[in-house]
Design brief:
GO molecular function: ATP binding; ATP hydrolysis activity
Organism: Xanthomonas arboricola pv. populi
Strand content: 15-25%
CATH architecture of the largest domain: 3-Layer(aba) Sandwich
CATH class of the largest domain: Alpha Beta
Helix content: 25-40%
Largest sheet: 9 strands, mixed
Oligomer: single chain
Protein name: AAA+ ATPase domain-containing protein
């Protein structure tokens, strides 16, 4: 078997306590009574995560070269995790025996003694040789709950020179050296090379397809339609997975490769940054600016510093295989054209630099001043690096921005900026909402029950009603104002929990606290339009709630006679959550009715 990526390494000192657990239970001793290592709190999270521990116990196996394997377990007991094995059957590489009799034995000593003093003498003899053994268990990425066991030495004996601690990756050695003297066991872990499934798959798919054609994408849509979630998903897609050591489970020394030396796919050739534009955000923060800093003598000087656009572009330009993502949320809340400034002319795909083409360029801001590259953005491992005097944007730098279509309190994007972005409209996703709310998605096309009694409705019926309400309201809004003002599916995203009564309650709360307040703002001082959108058809005015039509979301209240000549009727909206499930259902049905 070849080298494989390491998920975690567990390391244990060869202390008397650990020796006793490995030596086995003695009939006449109460101190030789364990078949496990206790895992301290600091190492517990690493070990549990690596072995998939989520409850009281995980069954696992210990393995070593030439097919050796035994069963073991990870168990939570007495407020601690226990890493154990069958009684008197620890992993062979960790047991004492006659060195040279088999490949797995590296700890000289007589096994199966029954007197505590004799067993202690075996430990004293090993300790007296000053080889300082460490017990190692390696968990590989992508493998089931299996630990590959070895022994390494701080001072390896002549026959085990290939099993010295210096054979281990530098990260593991550093973790071992950092283990407090009082701790008998530690662990170090690396991230699994896998990424989370997107929560807004349709939007992410559309953006990734657009980025294959153009380097800049703009998401435009009402609030609650998943734009910010899609940006988070995209950042996950561009997330760089740190390199991890490699280990050969079929080799006794392990044939380790240090993580810094590993060539792994292109996972380290991805990077992302996320920003939120706002009215105070500027070119100097985004591209480059002069910022005060102190000198060694305590004076103040102005230092040229690069912003995220220059920094990510510099990093991505080192190799055509590198991909960098710059996320810009609330794109129209700042003055986008002013923030980009002269770099606007470099945004077009045909102006970008890349394999075989230099691309367009402008002079770097403050070309006569030294501008150092931050370590994480350097093209290589150089100790120091300056920005080039010519500023180019590489093809591998992708910019994805998002803005709310309903926000009229900020200036619209200027035409020069907008034309440099592929615009993707993001609206409410009824299919995604249906899959979220329904327990049985296969019955999503059925009609709602004809009964208005909550007792005759299932939880999935209420889920379908929620989707129906959102779709109906949006149909009305689109005719009144257009698609920029539609309601997003996130407004009722959490209405799919519990039984029928609980779902009616959650949907009513969503109506009271999210949908109605949004519509009040959208149709400010337009009660007549708001009434139409909410399905309130009775336009006759009344003087109190008792006189109003039952089972509707609202009613028109007439002004008192003294104000009747100057005050118009006002729309009064009821709080649905204040009613019982039966009335909640009737009001919600009336709202959804065409």
């Amino acid at each position: 078997m070849s080298q494989q990526r390491v998920r975690a390494v567990i390391f244990a000192r060869y202390t008397l306590s650990n020796f006793k657990a490995l030596y086995g239970r003695l009939r006449s001793s109460s101190s030789y009574s364990k078949d496990y290592f206790q895992i301290n709190a600091k190492a517990a999270s690493i070990v549990a995560d690596a072995l998939g521990f989520a409850g009281d116990r995980v069954n696992l196996s210990y393995a070593w070269p030439d097919g050796g394997q035994i069963d073991g377990y990870l168990l939570f007991s007495a407020d601690r995790l226990h890493l154990g094995w069958e009684t008197n059957k620890p992993p062979s590489p960790w047991r004492v025996g006659q060195v040279g009799s088999n490949p797995e034995t590296s700890l000289e000593g007589v096994a199966d003694l029954q007197a505590e003093a004799d067993a202690n003498a075996v430990f004293d003899a090993i300790n007296g040789r000053n080889t300082k053994p460490w017990l190692i268990a390696v968990k590989l990425a992508g493998e089931s709950a299996k630990l590959h066991t070895r022994v390494y030495f701080e001072n390896p004996p002549a026959e085990f020179q290939d099993r010295g601690l210096d054979q281990l990756p530098s990260e593991v050695v550093a973790a071992i050296e950092a283990l407090p003297p009082s701790a008998g066991l530690g662990a170090i872990g690396w991230e699994e090379p896998k990424k989370r499934e997107p929560r807004a798959p349709a939007v992410v798919k559309a953006v990734l397809e657009a980025l294959e054609r153009e380097p800049n994408v703009l998401l435009v849509g009402p609030p609650g339609t998943g734009k910010s979630v899609a940006l988070e998903d995209l950042r996950e897609h561009y997330r760089s997975i740190p390199k991890a050591p490699q280990f050969d489970p079929d080799s006794w020394p392990g044939n380790w490769t240090d993580g810094s030396e590993v060539e792994q796919e292109t996972v380290s050739d991805l990077r992302s940054e996320a920003l939120v534009f706002h009215p105070a955000y500027s070119y100097e923060q985004f591209v480059a600016g002069l910022f005060p800093s102190s000198t060694s003598k305590g004076a103040i000087k102005l230092e040229a510093k690069a912003g995220p656009l220059l920094s990510l572009g510099h990093w991505a330009s080192a190799d055509p295989g590198r991909k960098a993502l710059l996320i810009l949320d609330e794109f129209n809340r700042g003055s986008a054209a002013a923030i980009f400034g002269d770099t606007l002319g470099l945004l077009d795909g045909d102006k970008r630099s890349g394999a075989g083409r230099a691309g367009s360029y402008i002079s770097r801001p403050y070309p006569n001043q030294e501008m150092m590259v931050a370590p994480i953005y350097r093209r290589d491992q150089a100790e120091e690096e300056q920005f080039d005097s010519e500023l180019r944007l590489p093809a591998g730098l992708h910019i994805v921005a998002a803005m709310n279509s309903t926000d009229r309190s900020v200036a619209p994007l200027d035409a020069a900026m907008r034309r440099r972005f592929s615009v993707i409209r993001v609206g409410p996703d009824y299919d995604l909402l249906t899959r979220r709310l329904l327990e049985d998605v296969g019955k999503a096309d059925r009609d709602l029950p004809s009964s208005q009694s909550a007792d005759d409705w299932t939880p999935d019926d209420v889920a379908l009603l929620a989707v129906r309400i959102l779709r109906t309201l949006n149909d009305r809004i689109e005719f009144c104002l257009g698609e920029d003002f539609l309601l997003g599916h996130a407004l009722i995203w959490n209405a799919g929990i519990g039984d029928t009564a609980e779902r009616l309650r959650l949907l009513s709360i969503a109506m009271d606290t999210k949908i109605v307040p949004t519509l009040r703002t959208t149709f400010l001082d337009q009660d007549d339009v708001l009434a139409v959108v909410l399905g309130i058809k009775d336009s006759a005015g009344v003087f109190s709630d008792r006189e109003a039509t039952e089972d509707t979301l609202g009613y028109w209240r007439s002004a008192p006679s003294a104000l009747a000549s100057i005050a118009p009727k006002r729309l009064v909206l009821r709080e649905i959550g204040a009613f019982d499930p039966a009335k909640q259902l009737r009001i919600l049905l009336a709202t959804a009715r065409d």
